[in-house]
Amino acid sequence: MPAYITKRLLQALFVVIVVTLLVSYAIRLSGDPTAMLVSGGAAVTEQDLQNIRAGLGLDQPFHMQYLNFISGVVKGDFGKSFFGGTPVWSLIAQALPATLLLSFLSLILSFVISIPLGIHAAVKSGSWADQIVRILSLVGLSFPNFWLAIMLVLIFSIKLEWLPSSGFLAYSGLVLPCLTLALILSAVNVRIVRSAMLETLSAQFILVSRAKGLKDRVVLYKHALRNCLIPLLTFVGLQFGDLLGGVVIVERVFNWPGMGSLAFDAISSRDYPVLQGTITVLALLIVLTNLVIDIAYGIIDPRIGRK
Amino acid sequence: MRYKNLFLAAAMSVLPLAATINAAHAAGTLTVALERDDGSWDPIDTFTLTWGRIGSNIFDGLVQRSTDLKLQPGLATAWEFLDDNKRIRFTLRKGVKFHDGEDFNAAAVKFTFDRLLGPEGAKGPQQANYTSIGEVKVVDDYTVDFILKSPDPVLITKLAGYGGMIVPPKYIQEKGDEYFNLHPVGTGPFKFADYKPKISLTLEANPDYWGGAPKLSGLVYRFISEAATQVSELQSGGIDIATLVPISLIDTIKGDPKLEVESITGPDVAMLRFNNTDGITKDPAVRKALIQAVDREAIIEQILQGNGNPIASLQSSLSLGYDPNLKPIPFDPAAAKAALDKAGVKPGTSLELSFVGTDATFREVSQTVAAYLQAVGINASLKSYETNVYYTDIIAHGKTGSLYQFQWGGWTFDFDNTAYLLYHSGQFWNPYIKDAKLDQLLEAQRSTYNVDERKNILGEVAAYAADQAFEMPLYNGNTLYAINKRVKNLAPTPDVRFRFVDVSVD
Q: Could you give the CA distance from residue B341 to residue A206 in angstroms, rounded to a whole number?
């Protein structure tokens, strides 16, 4: 196992380097932050632009800029934003918890919704309850997430005035974005749970456990559910990656101060240090999440760990 | 059926959070939504309107603009031009203190401009505006002389801008520039209280303000970049002023009895510029015919829903250099068709129109223009770009189509700024126009202090550009913002630098 983890960590390092290299290079191909900084200045000369570029270190060749960035990261210094000079690390330190909180809560809420519904639909396969769950899931899959977000805002913030419509000024600000993401995730997850459950329920060992006279609850939750978790977990790994990058549109609608918004703004304003820092942290987290999921496979299904 | 209970429990666990939380309307505090967080509150680091909306309440300049844009005394009570306009003497206001208790005096003025014109200023975009100042000399504690190294008739106007706002010398020397960026100290009506990057900036009233204590106890700026999100926050009471108002949502806002929309003439102009160096638009007669072909009044009425005015030159009626006698070329598709025929442009000729794709209003405008051009036999293909790529690459490097979108806010309310940038040869955003007559006129108005003469020359620039049809002037779009009616006494200012000293909230 330790050898395996070391190998995976080395892979992670490789992924982070490749991702940041690509992102840093690509963003430099598409526009010049200095021109954004001075637009509106009365009489900007080429000399002014060059001074600003030199001040930001943009006069150096790309490989030097990238090496400076990497050596900074190794020392724990992600550099400073081009706009205002706030240290990138402090921006990430603020955005990351907001994103992690939203991602975890949305995932958990989606389990709470989708696992019971999925199991119920599978157990009562073909019943009206199953039909309703399947139709709702289809509806959920077809919704654009921003539309759902706007509807929730319309109902809970504007009409009922129960919840803030955007931002993270109080914990109440979590409810609507969390609900939006959880509902969208549930639409997928409920289908995965249902189909995995249907397959498991037709297995011989379920028949055996029923024959042994075990209670329904024990059969479903102890024996069947555990076998359904592997496909769900695989999918959750992918979903968590999406959530970390911020389902950008949802973050925008709710003005959520997370990693997605941070990266989006950095791209729009060509704030290279902020973008590079954000992408590095996100890439690391996504690789680590997948590592954790791989380890979790072994715990859920001991047969995998033994191989 | 236990999982049913589980689901209920989950639902119940969410509900307590939903207990009515409407933190918005704290007594005496006004909340404004701004589209971006500039990240630094140092006056010399920025140029953005969002900065001005905040900075104008923290800092003061020597000169100020009143709400109707007249220049008036700020931290200087009087000024006079001496030595044949080579020296300006300012008499400073007495008894003013910075928020940290430091005295405002001549030394602070000298420090401010030495810093702006020195290496610290070179890192930012403001220095370029003030390079006519050679030196600032302290005469006594409350008198300073500005020695000019080149004539600058707009300098007094510029001193009412951001870069010339006065900063505290002792505070900056002790705490350093980086600390000052995030913990600004000025002489203005509000003092810095708290800053959460990308979330909010909070100011509190400065009861000792020289212009009288503000009626508000505090001011909160929230950074919300989506226009629709600003509007829903306004509707749900999370903010008092939305500064991004999409035209499509104006009716929704007006339908809410608690809210109102302000639509006032501002300095924003929108145009489609021509590539006058290549293709059919090389011919001024063709350019004029294309202008004639487009019903610009209809665009203002239908797409802007009346929130704008027709223009004949690239400035609003508020701008110095505006000539009411210069009229837009009238809409006349028949004449346009005839002129195109005469110029030898065959029906079915195609050209490209470049624009910024993320701008929903302008997307509609572009489509409408294409339809009008189609009616006179020109096939316009629309090509959209991302904002940054568009302005810093496509325009700057002359890669546009024959027609290309340009939008500009003439925030100095003086045509010099817009005209010089867009017509003088070699300017960053002027890839195509190289015209000796324009260069000469633009330089001439920069070297005279006679306002009437400048006005005449700038009028001549506008008339010449219209005659050459360098662009299709589309409209002067209104400055829009929406407010909650609990906000009292907010004067609508075209320069959008809200002045909150006399504002109160119910």
A: 84
